[in-house]
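C-alpha coordinates in:
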Protein backbone atom coordinates (compact mmCIF):
# COMPACT_ATOMS: atom_id res chain seq x y z
CA UNK A 1 0.00 0.00 0.00
CA UNK A 2 1.20 3.49 -0.77
CA UNK A 3 2.11 5.80 2.09
CA UNK A 4 0.06 8.96 2.61
CA UNK A 5 -2.91 10.16 0.62
CA UNK A 6 -2.46 11.85 -2.74
CA UNK A 7 -3.89 15.34 -3.15
CA UNK A 8 -7.14 15.55 -5.12
CA UNK A 9 -9.98 17.98 -5.70
CA UNK A 10 -11.98 18.12 -2.47
CA UNK A 11 -15.56 16.86 -2.69
CA UNK A 12 -17.94 16.11 0.20
CA UNK A 13 -17.46 12.63 1.66
CA UNK A 14 -20.48 10.37 1.17
CA UNK A 15 -20.25 9.61 4.90
CA UNK A 16 -21.61 13.10 5.61
CA UNK A 17 -24.44 13.16 3.06
CA UNK A 18 -28.08 12.17 3.45
CA UNK A 19 -29.75 9.29 1.62
CA UNK A 20 -31.56 11.80 -0.61
CA UNK A 21 -28.31 13.60 -1.42
CA UNK A 22 -26.79 10.28 -2.47
CA UNK A 23 -29.59 9.47 -4.92
CA UNK A 24 -32.01 7.47 -2.75
CA UNK A 25 -31.80 4.07 -1.03
CA UNK A 26 -31.27 2.20 -4.32
CA UNK A 27 -28.30 4.36 -5.30
CA UNK A 28 -24.97 2.55 -5.49
CA UNK A 29 -23.61 5.12 -3.03
CA UNK A 30 -26.19 4.21 -0.39
CA UNK A 31 -25.65 0.50 -1.05
CA UNK A 32 -21.90 0.97 -0.62
CA UNK A 33 -22.35 2.92 2.59
CA UNK A 34 -24.67 0.26 4.05
CA UNK A 35 -22.08 -2.43 3.36
CA UNK A 36 -19.38 -0.27 4.94
CA UNK A 37 -21.50 0.18 8.07
CA UNK A 38 -22.07 -3.58 8.28
CA UNK A 39 -18.35 -4.28 7.91
CA UNK A 40 -17.66 -1.81 10.71
CA UNK A 41 -20.27 -3.50 12.91
CA UNK A 42 -18.81 -6.97 12.27
CA UNK A 43 -15.26 -5.82 13.04
CA UNK A 44 -16.32 -4.12 16.27
CA UNK A 45 -18.38 -7.12 17.35
CA UNK A 46 -15.50 -9.51 16.66
CA UNK A 47 -13.07 -7.46 18.75
CA UNK A 48 -15.61 -6.99 21.55
CA UNK A 49 -16.33 -10.73 21.72
CA UNK A 50 -12.80 -11.49 22.86
CA UNK A 51 -10.61 -14.57 22.24
CA UNK A 52 -12.40 -17.90 22.45
CA UNK A 53 -15.92 -16.46 22.29
CA UNK A 54 -18.32 -18.81 20.42
CA UNK A 55 -19.68 -15.93 18.30
CA UNK A 56 -16.26 -15.13 16.85
CA UNK A 57 -16.29 -17.84 14.20
CA UNK A 58 -19.66 -16.68 12.85
CA UNK A 59 -18.65 -13.01 12.93
CA UNK A 60 -15.41 -13.79 11.11
CA UNK A 61 -17.21 -15.86 8.47
CA UNK A 62 -19.74 -13.08 7.86
CA UNK A 63 -16.96 -10.49 7.65
CA UNK A 64 -14.91 -12.47 5.11
CA UNK A 65 -17.94 -13.19 2.92
CA UNK A 66 -18.96 -9.53 2.83
CA UNK A 67 -15.43 -8.20 2.26
CA UNK A 68 -14.94 -10.26 -0.88
CA UNK A 69 -18.39 -9.99 -2.42
CA UNK A 70 -18.36 -6.23 -1.83
CA UNK A 71 -14.88 -5.71 -3.29
CA UNK A 72 -15.65 -7.89 -6.32
CA UNK A 73 -18.74 -5.79 -7.13
CA UNK A 74 -16.69 -2.60 -6.81
CA UNK A 75 -13.97 -3.87 -9.13
CA UNK A 76 -16.44 -5.21 -11.69
CA UNK A 77 -18.97 -2.36 -11.79
CA UNK A 78 -17.78 0.80 -10.00
CA UNK A 79 -14.11 1.27 -10.71
CA UNK A 80 -14.39 0.83 -14.50
CA UNK A 81 -17.16 3.46 -14.42
CA UNK A 82 -14.99 5.81 -12.36
CA UNK A 83 -12.04 5.39 -14.75
CA UNK A 84 -14.28 6.47 -17.62
CA UNK A 85 -15.78 9.47 -15.82
CA UNK A 86 -13.04 11.01 -13.65
CA UNK A 87 -9.74 12.45 -14.90
CA UNK A 88 -7.98 11.03 -11.83
CA UNK A 89 -9.98 7.79 -11.89
CA UNK A 90 -7.03 5.64 -12.96
CA UNK A 91 -4.84 6.83 -10.10
CA UNK A 92 -7.60 6.52 -7.51
CA UNK A 93 -8.75 3.07 -8.53
CA UNK A 94 -5.20 1.77 -8.75
CA UNK A 95 -4.65 2.82 -5.13
CA UNK A 96 -7.81 1.05 -3.96
CA UNK A 97 -6.99 -2.05 -6.01
CA UNK A 98 -3.65 -2.20 -4.19
CA UNK A 99 -5.51 -1.99 -0.88
CA UNK A 100 -7.86 -4.77 -1.97
CA UNK A 101 -4.93 -6.98 -2.98
CA UNK A 102 -3.22 -6.42 0.38
CA UNK A 103 -6.43 -7.36 2.21
CA UNK A 104 -6.90 -10.41 -0.03
CA UNK A 105 -3.35 -11.64 0.62
CA UNK A 106 -3.66 -11.14 4.38
CA UNK A 107 -7.02 -12.87 4.69
CA UNK A 108 -5.73 -15.77 2.58
CA UNK A 109 -2.95 -16.18 5.14
CA UNK A 110 -5.47 -16.09 8.01
CA UNK A 111 -7.61 -18.77 6.36
CA UNK A 112 -4.64 -20.98 5.49
CA UNK A 113 -2.83 -20.87 8.86
CA UNK A 114 -5.67 -21.11 11.35
CA UNK A 115 -3.42 -22.34 14.19
CA UNK A 116 -0.64 -19.80 13.72
CA UNK A 117 -0.06 -17.80 16.95
CA UNK A 118 0.08 -14.62 14.85
CA UNK A 119 -3.46 -15.13 13.53
CA UNK A 120 -5.08 -12.50 15.77
CA UNK A 121 -2.39 -9.98 14.81
CA UNK A 122 -3.13 -10.65 11.15
CA UNK A 123 -6.86 -10.20 11.75
CA UNK A 124 -6.34 -6.86 13.50
CA UNK A 125 -4.12 -5.72 10.63
CA UNK A 126 -6.81 -6.80 8.16
CA UNK A 127 -9.36 -4.73 10.08
CA UNK A 128 -7.05 -1.71 9.92
CA UNK A 129 -6.64 -2.11 6.15
CA UNK A 130 -10.39 -2.47 5.61
CA UNK A 131 -11.08 0.69 7.64
CA UNK A 132 -8.49 2.60 5.60
CA UNK A 133 -10.03 1.29 2.38
CA UNK A 134 -13.50 2.43 3.50
CA UNK A 135 -12.18 5.93 4.25
CA UNK A 136 -10.50 6.18 0.85
CA UNK A 137 -13.66 5.07 -0.94
CA UNK A 138 -16.06 7.31 0.99
CA UNK A 139 -13.80 10.38 0.98
CA UNK A 140 -12.08 10.16 -2.43
CA UNK A 141 -13.62 7.75 -4.95
CA UNK A 142 -17.36 7.63 -4.37
CA UNK A 143 -17.81 11.44 -4.21
CA UNK A 144 -16.61 11.53 -7.83
CA UNK A 145 -19.40 9.19 -8.86
CA UNK A 146 -21.86 11.47 -7.08
CA UNK A 147 -20.47 14.45 -9.01
CA UNK A 148 -20.57 12.67 -12.38
CA UNK A 149 -23.90 10.75 -12.26
CA UNK A 150 -27.48 11.85 -11.72
CA UNK A 151 -29.80 10.03 -9.30
CA UNK A 152 -31.32 7.78 -11.96
CA UNK A 153 -27.93 6.58 -13.17
CA UNK A 154 -26.72 6.03 -9.61
CA UNK A 155 -29.72 3.76 -9.02
CA UNK A 156 -29.10 1.91 -12.29
CA UNK A 157 -25.46 1.35 -11.37
CA UNK A 158 -26.66 0.27 -7.92
CA UNK A 159 -28.84 -2.46 -9.40
CA UNK A 160 -25.92 -3.80 -11.48
CA UNK A 161 -23.60 -3.63 -8.45
CA UNK A 162 -26.09 -5.61 -6.34
CA UNK A 163 -26.51 -8.30 -8.99
CA UNK A 164 -22.75 -8.81 -9.25
CA UNK A 165 -22.30 -8.79 -5.46
CA UNK A 166 -24.85 -11.58 -5.04
CA UNK A 167 -22.88 -13.81 -7.43
CA UNK A 168 -19.38 -12.86 -6.30
CA UNK A 169 -16.69 -15.00 -4.64
CA UNK A 170 -16.80 -14.92 -0.83
CA UNK A 171 -13.26 -16.07 0.01
CA UNK A 172 -9.77 -14.82 -0.88
CA UNK A 173 -8.35 -15.77 -4.27
CA UNK A 174 -5.09 -13.79 -4.48
CA UNK A 175 -4.30 -14.78 -8.08
CA UNK A 176 -7.60 -13.44 -9.52
CA UNK A 177 -7.27 -10.20 -11.49
CA UNK A 178 -8.52 -6.99 -9.89
CA UNK A 179 -10.00 -5.72 -13.19
CA UNK A 180 -12.67 -6.88 -15.68
CA UNK A 181 -13.07 -8.89 -17.72
CA UNK A 182 -10.34 -11.00 -16.10
CA UNK A 183 -11.80 -10.81 -12.60
CA UNK A 184 -15.25 -11.97 -13.71
CA UNK A 185 -14.00 -14.70 -16.03
CA UNK A 186 -11.75 -16.17 -13.32
CA UNK A 187 -13.61 -15.16 -10.16
CA UNK A 188 -17.23 -15.95 -10.92
CA UNK A 189 -16.67 -19.70 -11.45
CA UNK A 190 -14.98 -19.72 -8.03
CA UNK A 191 -18.07 -18.21 -6.42
CA UNK A 192 -19.99 -21.48 -6.70
CA UNK A 193 -17.17 -23.30 -4.91
CA UNK A 194 -16.99 -20.55 -2.26
CA UNK A 195 -20.72 -20.68 -1.57
CA UNK A 196 -20.62 -24.44 -1.16
CA UNK A 197 -17.86 -23.92 1.40
CA UNK A 198 -19.98 -21.31 3.17
CA UNK A 199 -23.01 -23.59 3.30
CA UNK A 200 -21.06 -26.46 4.86
CA UNK A 201 -20.38 -24.18 7.82
CA UNK A 202 -24.07 -23.86 8.76
CA UNK A 203 -26.70 -26.41 9.79
CA UNK A 204 -29.02 -26.61 6.78
CA UNK A 205 -30.77 -29.46 4.91
CA UNK A 206 -28.92 -30.97 1.96
CA UNK A 207 -31.67 -29.97 -0.45
CA UNK A 208 -31.43 -26.33 0.59
CA UNK A 209 -27.67 -26.42 0.18
CA UNK A 210 -27.98 -27.80 -3.33
CA UNK A 211 -30.63 -25.28 -4.33
CA UNK A 212 -28.62 -22.33 -3.07
CA UNK A 213 -25.47 -23.59 -4.77
CA UNK A 214 -27.28 -23.95 -8.09
CA UNK A 215 -28.71 -20.44 -7.69
CA UNK A 216 -25.24 -19.04 -7.08
CA UNK A 217 -23.85 -20.82 -10.13
CA UNK A 218 -26.71 -19.58 -12.30
CA UNK A 219 -26.14 -16.03 -11.12
CA UNK A 220 -22.44 -16.45 -11.78
CA UNK A 221 -23.11 -17.54 -15.35
CA UNK A 222 -25.19 -14.39 -15.86
CA UNK A 223 -22.38 -12.17 -14.56
CA UNK A 224 -19.83 -13.93 -16.76
CA UNK A 225 -22.02 -13.30 -19.80
CA UNK A 226 -22.37 -9.64 -18.76
CA UNK A 227 -18.59 -9.29 -18.42
CA UNK A 228 -18.03 -10.78 -21.87
CA UNK A 229 -20.56 -8.43 -23.46
CA UNK A 230 -18.89 -5.48 -21.74
CA UNK A 231 -15.46 -6.53 -22.98
CA UNK A 232 -16.77 -6.91 -26.55
CA UNK A 233 -18.36 -3.43 -26.47
CA UNK A 234 -15.12 -1.84 -25.27
CA UNK A 235 -13.08 -3.56 -27.97
CA UNK A 236 -15.19 -2.09 -30.79
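Residues out:
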Amino acid sequence: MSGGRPQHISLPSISRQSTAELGGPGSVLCRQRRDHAELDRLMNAYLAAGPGAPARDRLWRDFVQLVFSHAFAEETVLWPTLRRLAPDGEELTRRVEEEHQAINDLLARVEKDKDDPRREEWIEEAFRLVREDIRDEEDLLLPRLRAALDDRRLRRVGAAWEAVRLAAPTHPHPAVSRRPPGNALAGVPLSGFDRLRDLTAVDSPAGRRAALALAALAAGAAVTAWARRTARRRSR
